[in-house]
Amino acid sequence: MSSTATTQVTEILNYFGGTWHKSAATEFVNVSNPATAEVIARTPISSKADVDAAVQSAAEAFPAWRRTPAGERIQYLFKLKVLLEDHIDELARIITLENGKTFAEAKAELRRGIENVEVACGIPVMMQGYNLEDITPGVDELLIRQPLGVVAAIAPFNFPAMIPFWFLPYAIACGNTFVLKPSERVPLSMRRAYELLEQTGLPKGVINIVNGGKEAVDALCDHPTVRAISFVGSTPVAKHVYQRSAAAGKRMQCQGGAKNHVIVLPDADMDLARQIIADSAFGCAGQRCLAVSVAVTIGEAQNGAKPVVDGRSTKIAGHENGNFIKPTILDGVPASSSLANTEIFGPVLSLIHANTIDEAIDFIRKSPYGNQASLFTTSGAAARKFRYEAPAGNIGINIGVAAPMAYFPFNGWKESFFGILHAQGKDAVEFFTESKIVIERWSRQETRKF
Amino acid sequence: MSSTATTQVTEILNYFGGTWHKSAATEFVNVSNPATAEVIARTPISSKADVDAAVQSAAEAFPAWRRTPAGERIQYLFKLKVLLEDHIDELARIITLENGKTFAEAKAELRRGIENVEVACGIPVMMQGYNLEDITPGVDELLIRQPLGVVAAIAPFNFPAMIPFWFLPYAIACGNTFVLKPSERVPLSMRRAYELLEQTGLPKGVINIVNGGKEAVDALCDHPTVRAISFVGSTPVAKHVYQRSAAAGKRMQCQGGAKNHVIVLPDADMDLARQIIADSAFGCAGQRCLAVSVAVTIGEAQNGAKPVVDGRSTKIAGHENGNFIKPTILDGVPASSSLANTEIFGPVLSLIHANTIDEAIDFIRKSPYGNQASLFTTSGAAARKFRYEAPAGNIGINIGVAAPMAYFPFNGWKESFFGILHAQGKDAVEFFTESKIVIERWSRQETRKF
Amino acid sequence: MSSTATTQVTEILNYFGGTWHKSAATEFVNVSNPATAEVIARTPISSKADVDAAVQSAAEAFPAWRRTPAGERIQYLFKLKVLLEDHIDELARIITLENGKTFAEAKAELRRGIENVEVACGIPVMMQGYNLEDITPGVDELLIRQPLGVVAAIAPFNFPAMIPFWFLPYAIACGNTFVLKPSERVPLSMRRAYELLEQTGLPKGVINIVNGGKEAVDALCDHPTVRAISFVGSTPVAKHVYQRSAAAGKRMQCQGGAKNHVIVLPDADMDLARQIIADSAFGCAGQRCLAVSVAVTIGEAQNGAKPVVDGRSTKIAGHENGNFIKPTILDGVPASSSLANTEIFGPVLSLIHANTIDEAIDFIRKSPYGNQASLFTTSGAAARKFRYEAPAGNIGINIGVAAPMAYFPFNGWKESFFGILHAQGKDAVEFFTESKIVIERWSRQETRKF
Amino acid sequence: MSSTATTQVTEILNYFGGTWHKSAATEFVNVSNPATAEVIARTPISSKADVDAAVQSAAEAFPAWRRTPAGERIQYLFKLKVLLEDHIDELARIITLENGKTFAEAKAELRRGIENVEVACGIPVMMQGYNLEDITPGVDELLIRQPLGVVAAIAPFNFPAMIPFWFLPYAIACGNTFVLKPSERVPLSMRRAYELLEQTGLPKGVINIVNGGKEAVDALCDHPTVRAISFVGSTPVAKHVYQRSAAAGKRMQCQGGAKNHVIVLPDADMDLARQIIADSAFGCAGQRCLAVSVAVTIGEAQNGAKPVVDGRSTKIAGHENGNFIKPTILDGVPASSSLANTEIFGPVLSLIHANTIDEAIDFIRKSPYGNQASLFTTSGAAARKFRYEAPAGNIGINIGVAAPMAYFPFNGWKESFFGILHAQGKDAVEFFTESKIVIERWSRQETRKF
Q1: Looking at chain D, which terminus has fewer C-beta neighbours within 10 angstroms, N or C?
Q2: Residue C289 falls in the annotated catalytic set
Q3: What is the ipTM of this complex?
Q4: pLDDT (tens digit, 9 = 90+) per residue, B7-23?
Q5: CA–CA gap between residue C345 and residue C340 (Å, rounded)
Q6: Prediction pTM value
Q7: What amino acid positions of B are annotated as catalytic residues?
Q8: Residues C192, C298: one domain?
């Protein structure tokens, strides 16, 4: 058995210049199946030189890719959409294998990723600039959008496939070339996705992967050729990447952690609230940045909304070595405790009580994070007040996981996001292009002094 | 005489809570009339505590200002537009007094400032969010734009009034409250502008001024209450502010220096080119970030385009102590010399020769800056090539100073700008608001699993 | 007395070529003060020749006005905004005099008009076209917006000043020249407004007035030089104008009549509902196209919501000849009766009862009109259902008069509106411009076969 | 032979309710292969009752289709894109068979059609409405876009597949249900396209076909259930449809004929101009509404640009009965002659001479049509003047067929288009949706009088 396991360990490679390359790394990280603790792959901790090679590949591909019309660039995405649909089960199984989420959760993650491919197919509309005739007689002004050049994304372990697709489709559709650093803990999903991307016939160097850890991250932040950094991970690393990339003069968008509150008013539909909150808190093992982790009940709402502990055991027969944890509900947590304010990133739900909606919103206000805030209510007035006042980027009304569709930005406020323009949708297009102003005068006679 | 001069020195005050306050500063900077070298005012080097007071004032004003409808907030700007028009001569004289540019240049600067007030009057249109019904049956999603809170701008000496107006009108029209740190060298123009702003009846604390130098800048960058930093100045300070604000988790837009090239093709209208280039290089004493400072002639264009030195003497009768410098043209400057690549910020024009337009564009490509690039030509093909390839944020075709109108962003690329969203227009509105996603489900029956 | 009255009758003139002209009309309509029945003015029933003269004036002014930059054109609107604010009381008194609405209602009407002037000041942003580089290599495409030429608006009597301002500011800001045919019953308000417009220094011929009735309307619809017709009035005339202008190949937007329903759910705030519905039904004498005229109560809502008849007498002391009518509430009106389906345009409110919200929405569905539908409720679910299903252009939730702000279109569905693009906001800008596609190729080598 | 031919004649059916139906028509039109004059199919001249059946089918499908989220509706278009790509050769052969254009031209036509399917995949972005908080304190306003219901398109014979795809993808992506009346002369292409549409699994009734002639057209214009008419054909019929649909209160967009001018300046690249103009004038047998049919040479440009007659004979061996016509160039045509002003819709190019570009633009100005105008030049100034002044909806600079990409509207001015919003892109989305304003107040206390 053990020898078999050894031979099954996949050696993770970097991808640049249109082929897979062995990293020069001497250090590796094991990738384990969380359900069995078996090692299934090992990720090289790539060096700055590996990063250089990937960036160089992207830089070389840029001039020709940039001159490829947007309408042609999206043809690769239309093909990708079909390939991802055709391989969704296979990809979902890989996600489950390396990340541990359920097959259904993995497929749902992929749907979100595919959705971003779909939206990026609209680049010929979304990338348009704007213009005005006669800003002074005979002089016209236009704003055109052009790609940046080489851009890079650094992804986390909790959504191995979805989060790279928050960036990749827009980046390349806009004419940039792209370097991905996946999480060293879940490199297999995007490895397979890149194989599908290759099948689309995408020119060499347009997409690249460098595997690794902190050294690769820092090398990307520092690299003078990399124009933009997209990051998703924990808040301390998000802050680090934000500052370090700023020191290199880049543009960046860094998504951090969360501690999401749900407020349940006494007038809520309690059956609905209980079911949705449980799904939100315990689905994906609580490892969603939009998972609810603090439920605030107002007045009498408590007894109605209290989620039922489902009693799953930590030991799963046949998976005795797996990293399982059962859903945990902690009642009577003080609002000011660290438990109520620190990200746990597991299936743990704290219950807090408040007397009024204002008091509950104040909990959210005091939280360092601002990723999501949800309200369960039947009242239009309460919903309006909440969406107006709750300081979080994604607001759910009777929604457990207020995940924006791909045609809206995936928001985040406060310590949950550093930057201005978010992942997905119109924000992504702005992030991955730079605008150029052109002012043209063609006729001497027509023009007044400008 | 000297005693008179002493009594005429204006003591510059900070402005917060709706009134003028003496800084606790013990250090001051003299403000001189560049035409006479006379000291006309002294600016306090405000401390972190002074910054705190101004930010506190802004923070207190925010909740009520934010709840004031956009349509009411712009009423103050409509009034301001009238007041600025009515006082344009007076303001222009103040600009001339403290900055030294001509009265005509000062009025032109004010027109650009007023233009931004005009555009910000359109906030009820520009600040709109977007939405879609039925992202899944019965569930709607909308993006709403809300103000950030307290925002701050740090302005340079070369456009004492215009540059604060790149930010102030949009910031407050969007519902933010605003702290300005003017250049310590030219505090008088905005001091008067704020008096006019007071006349509009703007609520106390919506606009504030803190005078000072590096300590005030750093305090604004670090201040946890300040949500956004807009900066215009030299590239080294722009970089510093960009990184330091990033360390504090803020959003920022930092405009730096420039070294702008103009390329003159042999087919250009040489009379037009000569006149416009001279205006661009020597107007405002060459202290515009869009001033042309390197002219690249292609082939035979040189003899035709060479600007005429106008021979103004450095000593102006009656202003023997003034800081005058005559226009200087340096011919035969090597493209790789520091002279051709370093910002001079004076009326100095270097001439370089190139054999082809590609070679000339390559000069621009190698420049660390990317604020503006201009081409003089009659050829549509050359213009298209130039606007497609020249790596600068503001492109002029037969234009000397390609200054974007207020309804377009004031761009900048490379070391001329750090950030994503620029000053002016739609960019300003995005910069000064944060988007909030709202996902709403109201009916249990209509909704599939989400 | 009679001789005095005779001397006070104002002779209404047409306005074109920048001056007031006597119509060649031989037929006139008397303008009466509704509060006294006194004749205060007489309106000429202008002929086709009068229309020709006004259109000719507009046509002559067009080429120069079109070449005036948008940023300059809006300067007249900024001046107009100030003038309208300064003369709002005077204008309100004129509206009251000729239309009969209260002074407060007249001022509110003017505020709505001024709001449109404000929004049209944003034309340099709103009129921008869009563009994309490299639709095929080396070929760019852009869409530019250009004014149409001469456009005309035909206004009703119920809002003598507001409705012309739904069109005039956008039309001229976009670079068109404009002909207004006011209601022959209320010509005085816009007569005074045009005097203020003259004070802005607007070039001759940019704005014009032709007074009259059907002949003038038809002449405008038929005139080959008039490019667009904006109409507000009754549905039969709206239909006539829509079809007749279509026969002449024009673009048009025709707002017709209404029969607006308000639904009151049992969970509504009844005090609020009662007060707001009464204001809506009886304010402006019920002569608003957004006035509520049918109140549908569901279940037990009736007793709570039933508006109180205020008992104002038809005879007002000192105004015995005035056209006063007291508010009338008709209870138990069958949903299928003509009373419940015909526009009355007076302070009359019919009460209907329904068992469910579905039944109530069905009343709206069966109505030929679709201007406004309102719901009073505290339920978020009911509001969502209503806004999703109710077939009307303007939906109010706990709102009596759901009048869109000027930065949104003033909608209307079904027989309440014929056309696509509405008055106000972005729609107005699209309506008053035509887009021009430009596809440019400058280089032979770069281009593939297109 | 004749009996064989008889059996090969395809009986054209209508399509509604998700299946093909025989029309009750007693009258038929023969469809011939233009290359052989053989009858290949016969089209029923459907009656008003046939139209009713198709509209009824669409009306029944609407409620469920409208409630299908946009993100799901576009899944059918993604599938259609793949199917069209896979069957492009087969479809091109059908187009060639019934229309007579070459296989290459037919494939190019299909590419344009597919491009519209691609753009319509972006509906979740393109269909978004907009919104603003606090139009008065506590009151929000939003504009949502909803589908119209049943819409219809009437297509011409010259692009059997492309023109239906100007409308169909947007119409159904926006949630409408759709009735197509193809040209009775070329019913086979869309018949096959609908078979592919069926394979996507589109619900029954979402798309429908009614074949026929004038009676079907009029029935669609008159039908109270049909909300919008899209028409492409000759100008007289476009006018008829525009007026008749207006009489029924609909919204409409009617594309008519053309007479497109190309101006060749002496500075043009003559080789390029000659080649491109010949392609434009004679490609697709001159039966493109964007075909150049009048070439205006300025000064000395004539000798350089004069297209070469390619000498193809009218009799093609083996196709002696085919409707072939050889390219014809008519030199020295007077600008005022009917030849220079009437649409010929065949491979005929008239040559006119002008002394100046102004004179040439004046020819365009006097033309009743305004579909396209092209300029060949190397001068940026001439191009700017032309795009600013030439009164046509689609302007080409060194372009022979200035066909807008699908992400821009297909424009047309003057007698070439009746309506406001054009086919393709953003215009199509606005055309196929109606906006609904929602104004919401939820809290009594927060709200001032509105």
Answers
A1: N
A2: yes
A3: 0.95
A4: 589 999 999 999 999 99
A5: 12
A6: 0.96
A7: 289
A8: no
